[in-house]
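Newbie here. two chains, one complex. Structure please?
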Amino acid sequence: MKYIKYLVLGTLFGIILTKSEVISWFRIQEMFRFQSFHMYGIIGSAIVVGLLSIQLIKHYRLRSLSGEEIRIADKQYTHGTWLGGIIFGVGWAITGACPGPLFAQLGSGTAAAAILIVSALAGTWTYSALREKLPH
Amino acid sequence: MLDFLRQPWPWYVAGPLIGLTVPALLLLGNKVLGISSALRHICAACVPAGIPFLTYNWRAEIWNLFFVLGITIGGFIGYRVLGHPDTAAISAETVQDLQAQMGLTDFSGLLPKELFALENLSNWKGWVFIVLGGFLVGFGTRYAGGCTSGHAISGLSNLQWVSLVAVIGFFVGGLFMTWVIYPLLF
């Protein structure tokens, strides 16, 4: 089963999100109120490690397990980048969760997470339906 | 060891481990970390409704759904199996602010029960926090083309200026909600 590796990696990722309390609404409020370094330290050090890893991968032209050349598609700018970013930011401060933590909260047995995920799916679906009419 | 696992992990342990997910996904399968896409794939799989943005071969991206299923299992293991303190180790100032401003008294669990209990769906709080909040997360991340994992971690790691714009947007929205709207709501 070629997808097991993603299941295992996702499980580890979920454990890290949970154990570092990134999935706690209280932690996100603490972050937006600038009352602790915790979240900034996590996001900042994750970016530094990610950045160094990507530079190494590019420098040594590493290949993936299956031998493919590693390529990261460039993200394209649209007006949605900042408009959508702000909309997500408001949702982030309300729910205290980004999409990843929502799933970890669900696994932890937090009942509201199930409804939050359905609402998030409704949001994604609505965006998809209105996409042509929105400024990009 | 078990005591260490039960405590909240410090940022300098968790952050680098989260960062290592980026090369792990690239090396394992040439995949870029990003979780909000899973919401799109689920929509495409369940209710495509002839919408062009949801009509694509989502099966080709099924790894992403396995990753998200893993996160769910990780939430179970991290919270239920490894155990967890009942209250997050947030700063005393935050506790004070949330008490004074929002009238929160229960700091246990992951989400404040006074805002996120399902019984709240019978009043405005539940609709704002559970329904509207989730909706904005799903709508905004797709509109922005990524969330904290896709833009803040993968995007900034790959020095994409677009992601910097998105992350600034995330914080503008979050700070606006926290500093302007919350004081009006409570």
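Moderator note: Residues 4-133 of chain A form one domain. The longest helix of chain A spans residues 38-59. Thread marked as resolved.
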